[in-house]
Specification:
3 helices; YaeB-like fold; five-stranded mixed sheet; single chain
């Protein structure tokens, strides 16, 4: 999924996560990841701290999209998509 700046990729666990959430939210997350996120991933999410340092998190309704920005390769790797109450906890 290529846009102006970054290529967005979904990890296998993020793909699985998408199948577990309501279609309305899944569609919004896919649109966010393919249309908005590639142009400026730093601005659209916040850097996470503590054990999630190195990842960014973005809100999409009641769900959170956790992703890693790989600057050298111009890739945004979506790691996890989950409800806000579970997104930052260990699986």
């Amino acid at each position: 999924m290529l846009s102006d700046g970054f290529t967005v990729r979904f990890s296998s666990s993020a793909r699985r996560d998408l199948t577990q959430i309501p279609p309305r939210y899944a569609a919004a997350i896919i649109e966010f990841a393919t249309v908005l996120l590639p142009s400026n991933p730093h601005r659209l999410g916040k850097p996470l701290r503590n054990r999630l340092m190195g990842l960014h998190g973005a809100r999409r309704g009641d769900y959170r999209v956790l992703y890693e920005i790989i600057e050298a390769d111009r890739i945004v790797l979506i790691i996890r998509i989950d409800h806000r109450g579970r997104a930052y906890s260990r699986r």
